[in-house]
Specification:
Order of helices and strands: EHEEEHEHEEHEHEEHEHEEHEHEHHH
Number of helices: 12
Strand content: 15-25%
Structural class: alpha/beta
Radius of gyration: 22 Å
Oligomer: single chain
Distance between the termini: 22 Å
Strand order of the largest sheet: 3-2-1-5-6-8-9
Length: about 400
């Protein structure tokens, strides 16, 4: 089985980590041949030395509006030129570097790229298209393709949504219901150090919020919660792990300084292996507006932290409220504060939720389970292709 994976430019966060672990598990379990095409502005080859990788110039057709909105008109034009010109160039670059006719199946790792669709349509190869985000709801994405949903439906044999919330959202956008399945992302326990000792005393608790630092990820709500707790005389430490746009991070740091919380809130920046650091915390916050899946949530659970997550996106699919974590009302600082207080005031219950979350994550959201389910999609796609070819003969 020869699989061509189309990657996006990210090498730090959710989509890329899911890709890396999928490739590792597929190679380990099934020994299939995988080749990866990645964009010129990425460094994926440094992460996947065990497979063939090809650097290609291509630009996403589906783009998010930049955080600095005044830049949008300029970027809209530049990105548009790069996309419309680059898509033809990208196909030719792929054809020069590998024999596409020998590819059995194409797997696009992101809903934002259509290079996989261009190749699949040209060579009549089954396309699996991964959808990892809401797109318009979380990142305010726009498309350079008119009627892009129709194009996606026409091009893909199957779509994989990373949660039922994402699946239902894209069905409402027009993706064919019988073409899109939910397969949760997989997280490897090997990359995570498990918390062995849990703090009973609430005053010793440490909180972490991990992920890209952006408005949609909700770090600002965590800061507001720490401020309210401090006002009540509850001083609890929060570490913010991750990077993002410099202007937004400066804005958050100014808020921390204005609140006088410099001793309680620390910005750690991007950490290469955050799973090795999570055991130093007790509570993991997920404050996103609309999380498509939430790898960070599962990483918290696998590390043995108690998760406090917003009640939006896929969070309620991962967290059983009051059993494997706590869900709070998104955008309601008081609800978030009360959820943290539950962890402080009832330490035994917090520890029990952390333990149950650990068990749940290692049963439902493992890298192995994810790879097995995706491999099954591959096999079914190739079986139908073989049946179709036999009919033509």
């Amino acid at each position: 089985m020869n699989i061509l994976l189309i990657a996006d430019g990210d090498t730090k966060y959710g989509a890329s980590h899911s890709l890396f672990q999928l490739v590792k598990e597929l190679n380990s379990l099934f020994k299939i041949n995988i080749e990866i095409v990645y964009p010129f502005n990425s460094k994926i080859e440094n992460k996947l030395e065990e497979v063939n990788t090809f650097n290609i110039h291509y630009t996403p057709f589906y783009q998010g509006i930049p955080a600095d909105k005044w830049k949008f008109p300029i970027k809209y034009i530049i990105r548009g030129i790069m996309y419309w010109y680059g898509r033809f160039r990208a196909v030719k670059e792929v054809e020069k570097q590998l024999d596409v006719s020998k590819i059995d199946l194409i797997h696009s790792n992101s809903s934002r790229e259509d290079l996989g669709a261009l190749l699949a349509n040209k060579y009549n190869i089954p396309l699996i298209w991964h959808i990892r985000e809401f797109g318009d709801r979380d990142y305010k994405c726009y498309s350079y393709r008119k009627k892009y949903i129709d194009y996606m439906n026409k091009s893909a044999w199957r779509f994989i949504a990373v949660s039922n919330a994402v699946r239902e959202h894209w069905i409402k956008k027009g993706i064919y219901q019988d073409k899109i399945v939910c397969i949760y992302n997989g997280v490897s326990q090997q990359d995570i150090i498990v918390k062995l000792n849990n703090s009973i005393e609430g005053k010793n608790l440490r909180i972490v919020i991990l992920g890209s630092v952006s408005k949609t990820k909700g770090q600002v709500w965590a800061i507001e919660a720490i401020k309210k707790l401090a006002d009540e005389g509850i001083n609890i430490a929060l570490d913010v792990i991750g990077d993002g746009t410099g202007a937004y991070i400066k804005k958050l740091k100014r808020k921390v300084n204005n609140y006088g919380l410099q001793d309680l809130i620390t910005f750690k920046g991007y950490l290469k292996n955050p799973g090795e650091q999570l055991a130093g915390y007790d509570i993991g916050l997920m404050c996103s507006k609309d999380e498509g899946f939430g790898r960070v949530t599962v990483e918290y659970m696998m590390a043995g932290l108690c998760v406090v997550a917003s009640d939006t996106g896929a969070n309620s699919e991962l967290i059983e409220d009051g059993k494997s974590g706590i869900l709070y009302q998104y955008g309601n600082t008081g609800s978030l504060v009360n959820s943290i207080k539950k962890c402080i005031n009832n330490p035994q219950n917090r520890i029990e939720m952390a333990k149950y979350g650990y068990i749940r994550a290692n049963q439902e959201f493992t890298a192995k389970k994810n790879a097995v389910q995706i491999y099954d999609i591959y096999k079914r796609a190739l079986k139908l292709r073989e049946m179709s070819e036999c009919r033509l003969q």
